[in-house]
Design goal:
Shape: globular
Radius of gyration: 29 Å
CATH class: Mainly Beta
CATH architecture: 7 Propeller
Helix content: under 10%
Number of strands: 33
Keywords: Signal
Number of helices: 3
Signal peptide: 1-29
Number of domains: 1
Distance between the termini: 63 Å
Largest sheet: 6 strands, antiparallel
CATH topology: Methylamine Dehydrogenase, Chain H
Oligomer: single chain
Region (Disordered): 34-73
Biased composition (Basic and acidic residues): 48-62
Length: 494
């Protein structure tokens, strides 16, 4: 019995025949650049929704044939301007490390002499003023956190690094001061202490103030039992301190915070249930608003009267995987629509680490890998005694991040962008000065321009550092249009 001919070759032959017929039709219609008549000239019917109400005149047709292509506007580019601000250090978890008021950026650090310093810098003119607001000892955990108050006043919080042993023979307190006048850091109120804390003997560390409107400031810190703790300040009044979440027994959750959409009064909080050096860690996120904690889908999971919650009450953004390892939250932001964005690292204490991004889309968490943080522990140890170089989210655009990758034994602060809203990431440029070891970036916005701040120098221990704070301002300019199809430069391995 004779077998039937195979289907695939018949389909290919039919497609080839149809293709040749199409080529002949296109050529006869003049669509291949020849002089053939157009459809309208050939008397072919034009669909009603494609017709002009007024016929095209011969003069119009002639003018169209001579019309030049419209000029292509020049593509905007960014010029990076870098300035050294002063000697000092900071940690990952005391934030905001920088804010802006009017034409100036305000930031702060802890010096090798143990002084808490605040700087006011005009990055356009280069005019800079630095003042000391307290002394807490030489420890990179002791950097100040800043928040803007009505009238352009600046509120600063700072504390010594406290725990089971530190500070030695000192009662741990958190201090705060406010400028007397707006836009002026020369005069401050007397030093006050935060009068509330969660139960425990482990003091205060990592202040995180967030303005929530109505003259109120949400202030979070690591409290008396090493758990994320917060209180709300309004004027001279403080609410009772409350622990937010608790981790597994004996573990200390680490949290970062960020304001929500302007005017919303929301605070975003993302955290791990433990220090990744001591336990396997996941990443969770919550939103705080008017006394309640919610998941991103709006579900209420806790109120100030029923705290602390188990760490697992939050949105599970990253679940520990053996292949990826332990996580460490690096930065939190709002996408401009009230949704949480978080960046974190995975691979803690392995021979490599990677940076990841996650954002709430309105219905689910979208997670994507950004770039390796480093690929060799020997390189990291040459760069400094830190868990990772760090990564920050652009406050104006969650599709832009600023990782500090370890390459060749040095930290390099870079700008990475996502062309598809967080699905994939490409390297845009290097920001930190060549030949320097730079890490722990943060970012603020001044006059519509993003300012990226970071440390450069050597860090060997919490109390052994020789670093300075640098600021790179990204100024929009007009530059040449890249050739079509030009792809961003791929990052070097690692």
């Amino acid at each position: 019995m004779r077998s039937a001919p195979p289907v695939a070759p018949l389909r290919r032959a039919a497609a080839l025949t149809a293709g040749l017929a199409t080529v002949a039709l296109v050529a006869s219609a003049g669509l291949d650049g020849g002089a053939g008549p157009t459809s309208a000239a050939a008397g072919q019917r034009v669909p009603a929704d494609c017709r002009r109400t007024v016929p095209i005149t011969p003069e119009e047709r002639k003018g169209r044939s001579r019309q030049a292509l419209p000029p292509v506007p020049a593509a905007p580019t960014l010029e990076a301007r870098t300035m050294r601000l002063g000697d000092g250090a900071w940690s990952y978890f005391g934030d905001p490390r920088a804010v802006s008021i009017g034409p100036n950026v305000y930031t702060g650090w802890i010096t090798r002499g143990g002084r808490v310093q605040v700087a006011k810098v005009n990055l356009t003119t280069g005019v800079r003023r630095v003042v000391s607001v307290g002394r807490t000892g030489r420890d990179d955990h002791n950097n100040p956190a800043l928040v803007v108050r009505p009238g352009g006043k600046l509120l600063v919080f700072f504390s010594p690094h406290s725990g089971r042993e530190r500070p030695f023979h000192v009662v741990s307190r958190m201090y705060y001061r406010e400028t007397i006048r707006g836009h002026d850091i020369r005069r401050w109120t007397r030093t006050r202490t935060v009068p509330v804390n969660a139960r425990g003997e482990l003091g205060y560390t990592y202040p995180n103030p967030v303005s929530i409107g109505g003259g109120r400031t949400f202030v979070a810190w690591r409290g008396g039992c090493w758990r994320p703790t917060f209180a709300i300040r309004k004027g001279s009044h403080w609410s009772p301190a409350r622990e937010i979440v608790r981790g597994p027994k004996g573990q200390r959750p680490y949290a970062k915070y960020a304001p929500g959409k302007p005017g919303s009064g929301v605070v975003h909080a993302c955290y791990t249930e433990a220090h990744p050096a001591q336990a396997r860690t996941n990443v969770y996120c919550l939103n705080f608003h008017e006394g309640t904690f919610r998941r991103s889908d709006g579900r209420v999971v806790g109120s100030v009267r029923r705290l602390p919650m188990p760490a697992s009450a939050g949105d599970l953004v990253y679940r520990y995987e053996q292949a990826l390892g332990r996580a460490w939250v690096m930065d939190v932001s709002d996408d401009g629509n009230g949704n949480t964005v978080v960046v974190y690292s995975v691979g803690f204490n392995r021979n490599w680490q990677r940076f990841y991004s996650a954002r709430w889309t309105g219905s689910a968490w979208q997670v994507s890998r950004i770039t390796p943080a480093y690929s060799d522990n020997r390189q990291r140890f040459r760069a400094g005694a830190f868990e990772t170089g760090g990564i920050a989210i652009d406050p104006q655009d969650p599709d832009v991040v600023y990782p500090a990758r370890i390459v060749g034994g040095r930290g390099i602060v870079e700008r990475w962008t996502s062309p598809d809203h967080g699905l994939t990431w490409v390297r845009d440029r290097r920001l930190s000065p060549g030949g320097r070891n730079c890490f722990r970036p943060t970012a603020t916005v001044q006059g519509g321009r993003t300012v990226v701040l970071y440390l450069c120098g050597t860090l060997r221990y919490w109390t052994r550092f020789d670093t300075a704070v640098y600021a790179t301002t990204l100024v929009p300019t007009v530059g040449p249009v890249p050739s079509p199809g030009t792809a961003p430069v791929a990052p070097p391995a690692g």
